[in-house]
Specification:
alpha+beta; binds FE2/S2 (inorganic) cluster; 22% strand
């Protein structure tokens, strides 16, 4: 043990701790300064950054013994506070630098150290600094963060004043379409926005710490679990296996009726078999974290290993055994039939191309690992706090499994350090429920980054073959496709994902005749969960690369070929319905000067390039739909209060901006009441208080829950309205004994796309984009560098410009990762952020450009669509097309590692 007296944020503090203890633990758990976060815990992500004696360090890899008496440490709490913000904190808010906010405190701390040393850095020096100090952000695409530092430096140098760039709106203004700062930004930049692990430190003393015993094989029969030694570890209170589960021990995967499985194949704690690496076999519950870890080490598990099928083709092989006995490995199929039979058209067409493609098991890589806690409240209800982005779904999916009635399970979403979709599926909710039900005590569980990566779902790989035909003039005639979805061992939403194969294959173009077959396949690799774009990045990669191949065959420029074929008035989507806006032609018109300049720039660079360096330009159309398929419904409420109005919904927040979304819809609708935004109180994502707004997936929330919020506010206005056209006050409503709270519900006027034909009108809205990528390929070593990305988008009315820009930047950058570096395939290598290929700031160009058109959408009260998923629909295809344009290497299996580029070059 060590006693230390140090200057913490300028104040003298004394404490005693283990010399070997991580400084991050001392700061967070002993000194209570939770603005410092822990993401990876191993020095990769920078979320634990503090300044130690003027130097930036990562506190998760710094032992306390490195800190001496009288040392000075600065954390975010010492940089500024809500009443005395540092220029960096102001600038971060103004530039939308805090999306989920998990990286925010430590980026600001890191930037403070830079500006303390140099208040006039260049953009490149800022990027070098963040690269050197390993500051990662998975949400923002980095560029807004550099913008924020540059403006903060100007503020510090006195070249601008706060009022010059934080333009506050005049009282009474509408905030719709503005850069109004999201309500959570202030807490995020000051480090007071509590995430799950921060709340975990505020739980009652009798809370148990949980750790799980996980499988280290991918497929096997579970022969025995011996927990006796683990139970003897001092501090261990219980060791739970499937035998201790009070319910069915199954997650309900909500399978489609035509799914050949029952959707109940995923155990909470594995009982008979192991289906994938990382499966949970036992839960150790202890009075403290260390004892729980020690208990995990003592659990003995005997497994008879079985052949592991690590890809869709392997699991589809004739001799493959059934992963879930009684259910075929191909457990769901679908088919699209639009227009006439395609075979004769293909036979007679002058131009036909065909190719096969693979999109990888992309890992989500949020910087905050999965975390949650559970307890039983005084009414006997099971309350689970987690990162869920589908709180009502998840209560339904786990209730019977843990032994509760669905109506007695309530999920609350903690402030969430991003999910990008993985939390569309339950992760630890079932484990927490089982542990609390077995012990009657509150239980806390946090994953480390390796568990985050290996236990939670991934983007499902698609194995696709696609064929396309065009006539002599370059008009696309027909499309055929065949896609196999490797969904890992658990089916939940795998059927829905497979539907995306026909909904977005060829999207953006009028193709009259389409045939295709898709299938969902059980394998033993990481199970599939939703990931931003959900199906579009997987199927638009084939279609957007094949379009380039077809353009080449026809002899047209790929930009012109697309322009000729994109949706025009009267054209229909692959599912045979009218798009909700015919904006692609204008987006192409806007993009053309960028494309022409990019081609000219590439030609000039190629003319004077050093040996082996090649430059090229690629283009892609990006489309995604908004909504769960068919008549998607959402609910919200609005209530008059003494200080204004409270608005409640379950618009779960990955970090994308549910708070500003709800606020903007409510503020605009409640205009007759002349409320300032801060008079609207937001009540979000707590099933004990908020209604079923459906999950925050499929880019639906802005359109569907936005509408439900509008309806609730309209209903409230209607109730407040007096005969003379004025509105009752809260006091008048109470005096007249009137209801104060009003529900709102909205249902999309849509229809399913049945798996037999794939025809229908499944989405309440669509988002459209044209992406242009400019790359450098080093043909000596196969390395690709993305030099510039431009995205022209139409997401309908922009509800909040900062948020929409943020989604575009973030999506593009995840597209760069998908194109070049990201994967979860190798169970040894792909278990860290770096190993999985997360893009660092210097992997991303400081050259991301956004343009917009705003065609009003018919299904949203303010003309909006969604935003978050379209920018990841196909930027990776634009990059792959640019690689081909640069050097002639056509990579069809992602990611385009250097060796694949070299192999394609030699083809
Ligand atoms: S670098 Fe410390 S938590 Fe990631
Ligand atoms: S805002 Fe940077 S990780 Fe989410």
């Amino acid at each position: 043990m060590l006693k230390r007296t140090i200057f913490m944020n300028g104040s003298k503090v004394t404490f005693v701790a283990d010399a070997e203890e991580k400084l991050s633990n001392v700061i967070r758990k002993q000194l209570g300064l939770t603005g410092t976060k822990v993401g990876c815990g191993s020095g990769e992500c920078g979320t634990c950054t503090v300044i130690h004696n003027g130097k930036v360090i990562r506190s998760c890899i710094t032992k306390l013994k490195k800190v001496k008496d009288n040392d000075e440490i600065i954390t975010i709490e010492g940089v500024g506070s809500k009443d005395a913000l540092h220029p960096l904190q102001i600038s971060w808010m103004v530039h939308g630098g805090a999306q989920c906010g998990f990286c925010t405190p430590c980026f600001i701390v890191s930037a403070k150290a830079l500006l303390d040393a140099n208040d006039n850095p260049t953009r490149e020096e800022v990027r070098d600094w963040f690269q050197k100090n390993k500051n990662l952000c998975r949400c923002t695409g980095y560029q807004p963060l550099v913008d924020a530092v540059m403006d903060a430096a100007k503020l510090i140098r006195g070249e601008i004043a706060v009022k010059d760039f934080w333009k506050k709106l005049p009282e009474g203004s509408s905030i719709m379409g503005t850069e109004y700062i999201r309500p959570s930004a202030l807490a995020k930049v000051t480090g007071t926005w509590d995430f799950g692990a921060d709340l975990g430190l505020k739980l009652p003393e009798n809370t148990l710490h949980a750790k799980i015993v996980q499988a280290e094989v991918s497929h096997g029969n579970l022969l025995s679990i011996d927990t006796e030694e683990a139970k003897k570890v001092p501090g261990v209170v219980a060791v739970l296996t499937y035998k201790d589960v009070k319910g069915t021990n199954r997650i309900n995967g909500l399978a489609f009726p035509s799914n050949k499985g029952d959707g109940l194949e995923r155990p909470i704690l594995n009982d008979k078999k192991i289906f994938q690496y990382g499966d949970a076999i036992a839960i150790v519950l202890a009075e403290n974290e260390k004892a729980a870890h020690a208990g995990v080490e003592k659990v003995k598990v005997e497994i008879e290993e079985l052949p592991a099928y690590m890809s869709a083709p392997a699991a589809m092989a004739e001799d493959a055994i059934e992963i879930h006995p009684g259910t075929p490995n191909i457990y769901f199929t679908n088919h699209i039939e639009k227009g006439a039979e395609t075979a004769p058209i293909m036979d007679g067409a002058p131009y036909v191309v065909e190719d096969s493609f693979y999109t990888q098991r992309q890992p989500h890589l949020p910087l905050e690992p999965d975390v949650g806690f559970a307890y039983v409240n005084d009414e006997g209800q099971l309350i689970i706090h987690s990162k869920s982005i589908a709180i009502h779904f998840h209560a339904l999916m786990i209730a019977e499994g843990v032994g509760m009635k669905p109506e007695d399970v309530f999920i609350v979403q903690n402030n969430t350090g991003a999910t990008f979709g993985y939390k569309f599926s339950p992760t630890m909710e079932g484990l927490l429920g089982v542990a609390t039900m077995a012990t009657g005590r509150p239980v806390y569980l946090e994953f480390n980054m390796k568990q985050q990566i290996t236990y939670t779902g991934k983007r499902s790989p698609f194995w696709t073959t696609m064929k396309m035909a065009a006539d002599k003039e370059g008009k696309i005639l027909a499309l055929e496709s065949d896609w196999s979805v490797d969904h890992g061992p658990y089916c939940e939403f795998g059927d829905l994902l497979t539907q995306r194969g026909f909904q977005f294959g060829g999207a953006g173009y009028n193709i009259d005749h389409i045939r295709g077959n898709g299938r969902t396949v059980a394998t033993n690799h990481g199970w599939g969960s939703a990931f931003r774009g959900y199906g579009a990045p997987e199927i638009m990669f084939p279609s957007e690369v094949l379009i380039d191949e077809l353009a080449e065959k026809v002899g047209m420029d790929p930009f012109d070929f697309r322009y000729k074929n994109v949706y025009r008035e009267g054209d229909t989507t692959p599912t045979g319905c009218a798009p909700d806006a015919y904006c692609l032609e204008e987006l192409f018109d806007k993009s053309r000067p960028v494309y022409e300049l990019a081609k000219k720039t590439a030609a000039e660079k190629n003319a004077k390039a050093e040996a082996g360096k090649k430059y090229g330009v690629g283009v892609s159309v990006n489309i995604y739909g908004c909504g769960l398929d068919g008549p998607d419904t959402s609910e919200a409420w609005a209530e008059i209060t003494p200080r204004g109005v409270s608005v409640g919904n379950s618009w779960e927040d990955h970090g994308q901006g549910a708070d500003i979304g709800t606020l903007t819809y409510a503020h605009e609708t409640l205009k007759p009441l002349n409320l300032e935004p801060d008079q609207i109180d937001l009540v979000l994502n707590d099933m004990t208080k908020t209604p079923n707004s459906g999950p925050a997936g499929g880019s639906r929330s802005n359109l569907v829950t936005g509408n439900a919020t509008v309806v609730a506010c309209r209903n409230l206005l209607e109730a407040l309205k007096k005969e003379d056209g004025t509105y009752r006050t809260y006091e008048e409503m109470v005096a007249e004994g009137r209801e104060l709270k009003y529900m709102g519900k909205w249902t999309a006027p849509c229809t399913d796309t049945p798996p037999e034909t794939g025809q229908g009108n499944p989405f309440a809205g669509y988002m459209y984009g044209v992406c242009i990528a400019e790359v450098e390929v080093d043909t000596n070593n196969g390395k690709t560098k993305v030099e510039k990305m431009t995205l022209a988008s139409d997401v309908g009315t922009i509800i909040n410009k900062l948020v929409v820009d943020g989604q575009m930047y973030g999506g593009l950058v995840q597209g760069i990762g998908m194109a070049l570096t990201e994967d979860f395939e190798d169970l040894k290598k792909h278990t860290t952020l770096t190993g999985c290929g997360i893009p660092k700031i210097k992997d991303i160009p400081d050259n991301l450009h956004l343009m917009y058109t705003e065609y009003k959408r018919p299904n949203n009260f303010y003309g909006a669509s969604g935003a978050g998923e379209m920018p990841l629909a196909a930027p990776h295809a634009a990059i792959i097309n640019a690689i081909y344009n640069a050097c002639g290497a056509r990579v069809t299996h992602l990611p385009a590692y250097p060796e694949k580029v070299l192999a394609a070059l030699n083809n």
